[in-house]
Design goal:
384 residues, alpha/beta, two-stranded antiparallel ribbon, 14 helices, 13 strands, 4 iron, 4 sulfur cluster binding, Radical_SAM_PqqE_MftC-like
Length: 384
C-alpha cells in the first residue's frame, strides 16, 4: 500500500521515486537566536557552503525528480548573496519556488520587489506569538515581532502571497485563538503550523503534552472550516488522523471509508500562487527531502541523519536508494502502536519527533494519545 501514487493534477506521485517538496538550506548564517533553532544557526556564512555552480547543479537535480516544490530556507536565506539569481534560474526552469527568510534588516522592500519580479511563488515569515513578548522571547531577539509585522505590511502592499509559519509549543499554546486572528488580519493565504520537535535548540520541556496535541488538532480542524486561510501542518502527522476521525463523525461513517486526499477540500492558496497541496501525507524522507548548506541530504531538517551528500552522489540516487529513507517510507516497519495503527499509511507519526525523543526513527510517535484498534482488540481479549 505504501508508495502507491495518487492522481494529482493529472500526475501520479510515488514518494518512493520522487519527493513532493525539497527544502534547501542555502546558508546557515542568521542574525536571530531562536530558542528552538533546528540549525544552531551562526552569524557568518560557512565557507564550505555549496557554491553558486553547485547550487545550480542541485536545482537541476531537484527539477529532474518530477519538478517538486522548492523551498529556500536557512539560517536566513537572505544572507546568501546569490539567492535571487538561484531563484530566478529555478523559476525560469518552470519550478514553483518559495522562501522563508528571517525577519531582519536584510529583508528590504527592494529585495521583496526583486523576489516578486523574479517570480517567487510565496513568501513565508515566522510568527510564533500574537504579541511582541511571546514572539520575541521565542525568537531570542527583541524587536523581532514589530519588524516581522513591518515586513509583512510591505509584502501585502506588493500583493505577494504570504505564508505565516508558527511553531506551537509551551510558549504560545494558550494564545492560539489570538494567533489565528492575527494570521487573518495579516491577510495570509496559508498558516503553516509546526509542532515543536525537541532537536537543535528546541527542548523537550517546551513541547506541549500528547493530550494538548490532540486538543490543538481538533481546534485546527474546526478552524479550517471557517478560516479565510488554508492550514497546513508539519511534524504533526497525527492531525491527518484527527481530520479523518472528525469527518467520519460528521458523516456518521467509518473513517476507513474516507481517503485522506479527499478531505483536502480547501486549497485556496494554490489558486493564488500555484503551490499545490500534497495529495497524500508527506513525512520525513517520504515525499520530503532536505539538503543542508554543505550538501548533506537528510530526511528532513528535523531528522538529523545524513543519508548522503550531493557533492558525492546525485540527489535522486540518494533519495531512491538510501536504506534509511526506504525504511522511513515503509510504515509496516514502524514499531510499537504506530506499527499496528490502522492510520499508519495516512499518518505515520512524526518520524523526526520520534527520533528526537527515542533515538529510533522507527519507534512509535511519543506525542500521540490514540490507541489503535488492533491494540484495543488485544486488550479486550486479555480482559475477557
Amino acid at each position: 500500500m505504501h508508495g502507491q501514487g495518487h492522481p494529482h493534477m493529472g500526475k501520479m506521485i510515488d514518494y518512493n521515486e520522487n519527493p513532493f517538496i525539497a527544502i534547501w538550506e542555502v546558508t546557515r548564517a542568521c542574525q536571530l537566536k531562536c530558542v528552538h533553532c533546528r540549525a544552531d544557526a551562526q552569524t557568518k556564512p560557512d565557507p564550505r557552503e555549496l557554491t553558486h555552480e553547485e547550487g545550480i547543479q542541485l536545482i537541476d537535480q531537484i527539477y529532474e525528480m518530477n519538478n517538486p516544490m522548492l523551498v529556500f530556507t536557512g539560517g536566513d536565506c537572505m544572507m546568501r548573496e546569490d539567492l535571487f539569481d538561484l531563484a530566478e534560474y529555478a523559476v525560469k526552469k518552470g519550478m514553483r519556488v518559495s522562501m522563508t527568510p528571517s525577519a531582519t534588516a536584510n529583508v528590504t522592500k527592494e529585495r521583496m520587489e526583486r523576489a516578486k519580479n523574479v517570480g517567487l511563488s510565496r513568501w513565508g515569515f515566522s510568527l510564533d506569538g500574537p504579541t511582541p513578548e511571546i514572539h520575541d522571547h521565542f525568537r531570542g531577539t527583541p524587536g523581532s515581532f514589530d519588524l516581522t509585522l513591518e515586513k509583512i505590511k510591505y509584502l501585502n502592499e506588493l500583493e505577494m502571497p504570504l505564508q505565516i509559519n508558527t511553531v506551537i509549543s509551551r510558549y504560545n499554546y494558550d494564545h492560539l485563538e489570538q494567533m489565528a486572528e492575527l494570521v487573518k488580519d495579516l491577510k495570509a493565504i496559508m498558516w503553516y503550523i509546526f509542532l515543536l520537535v525537541p532537536t537543535g535548540r528546541g527542548q523537550e520541556d517546551a513541547c506541549i503534552t500528547p493530550a494538548e496535541h490532540e486538543k490543538v488538532f481538533r481546534w485546527l480542524y474546526d478552524l479550517s472550516k471557517t478560516a479565510p486561510f488554508d492550514i497546513k501542518t508539519t511534524a504533526a502527522q497525527h492531525y491527518r488522523r484527527v481530520v479523518l476521525q472528525q469527518k467520519a463523525r460528521e458523516h456518521r461513517i467509518d473513517s476507513s471509508e474516507i481517503r485522506y486526499e479527499d478531505t483536502i477540500t480547501t486549497d485556496h492558496a494554490s489558486m493564488i500562487d500555484g503551490l499545490k497541496r500534497a495529495p497524500k501525507g508527506v513525512n520525513d524522507g517520504n515525499g520530503f527531502i532536505f539538503i543542508s548548506h554543505v550538501g548533506d541530504v537528510l530526511p528532513s531538517g528535523l531528522l538529523p541523519i545524513k543519508v548522503g551528500n550531493v557533492r558525492e552522489k546525485p540527489l535522486k540516487e540518494i533519495y531512491r536508494e538510501s536504506p534509511v529513507l526506504k525504511e522511513l517510507r515503509n510504515p509496516d516497519l514502524y514499531k510499537g502502536k504506530c506499527g499496528v495503527c490502522e492510520y499508519r499509511f495516512v499518518c505515520g507519526g512524526s518520524r523526526s519527533r520520534t527520533y528526537a525523543v527515542t533515538g529510533d526513527y522507527l519507534e512509535s510517535e511519543p506525542y500521540c494519545v490514540y490507541t489503535p484498534m488492533a491494540l484495543r482488540g488485544k486488550k479486550a481479549v486479555v480482559q475477557g
